[in-house]
Amino acid sequence: MKGRAGTSRRLYRRAEKIFPGGVNSPVRYYAPYPLYMSGGTGSSIRDADGRVYTDYLLAYGPLILGHSHPRVVRAVSRVMEEGIMFGAPAAGEVELGEIISGSCRSVEQLRLVPSGSEATMHALRLAMLHTGRRKILKLRGGYHGTNSLALDPAAAREVEFNSVAQAERELKKGEYAAFILEPAMGNCGLVLPEDGYLQAVRDATEKSGTVMIADEVITGFRTGFGAYSEAMGVMPDLLTFGKIVGGGLPLAAFGGRRDMMKHVRPAGSFQQAGTYAAHPVSVAAGLETLRILSSSDYTRLEECSRIAALELAKTGLTVNSSTGMLSIFFTGDPVRNGGSAMAVGGEPFFRLFKAMLEEGIYLPPSQQELIFISFAHRKADVRRHFRTMAEAAASMAGRGRGLKV
Questions:
Q1: Into how many domains does the chain fold?
Q2: Catalytic site residue 215?
Q3: Is the pLDDT of residue 41 over 60?
Q4: Vertex 326: Cα angle to 151 and 235 (nearest 5)
Q5: Could you list the residue range(s) of the whole structural domain that residue 109 is in?
Q6: Is 152 a catalytic residue?
């Protein structure tokens, strides 16, 4: 930043007096203070001092169409003019629900909620009601929002991703209400499922009477139009969605088998409600985003992601990638689960983040978060930017001359 972030520095000094740590979500903080943003269009974002960056953070994933997509902005504006919210159903939520359930065979019914944390919390509560059990199985390094059920060490036990043996051993105990997992891990860096892993988990949960919950807050509608788990050939009992389905506004969903969802009030006795559930403005953004995605060519996004991964792979460092998302780990060893991901030190990546700010490239500040690519990014820019990242990363890792950082 080199002295060009005076406005951000002043704003942070004010913010740290009133917000814990100066921010309203911990991932937004980095030393010595975060850049404050004032605008975004397409693949670019602009800070409070007017400097423009190509954005590969994309608000931690929701902006698969880029910033301020004209159709999404118009859809939100129309709804705002007609009435911000009503405390009553509106037509948009019906269409949005039909699109989600119509594109995901596992989702026979669903409920819209304001956040991914709420979606995962209610999915876990519903699994407990359905099974009569109170314990939860999850992945080491997995994240399901600030959800007290998943965060309680007394109730939640962890196994490693891609270890069929560990999952089967725990599930055979028959004491878990749910096994909740990201089908591709995204909150310790990107870790992909190995061949057969998700199906083996599905088989083991069925045998033990455990509800399989696919947390698709990150993966849903990202690599294709629908659920990532289903694209891998697996039908979970319950799924959670967020980020992309809200089009950049607060909206999420949980849903799945009808025989489970029928318990949700007012159809059944399961307590779940919310003043801001299916908020018309969020629904408008999500609905227009999914309409656009339904006719989008995901191979374009796949090609940009492949270009990015190939450039980063030239460093000799470990790169995990899929359509629209990737991670670079400062190690040459495979990263196949949460344990191996979290064992990689994050300091070199933070130095890469700071170096890329000087190049006008905006990355996540933490290695544990994903690098995202949107439909708004152009192939030529992706190739150039990720070549620059690769040169800097190789230099930091002592694997090439690269940039001096």
A1: 1
A2: yes
A3: yes
A4: 60
A5: 70-294
A6: no
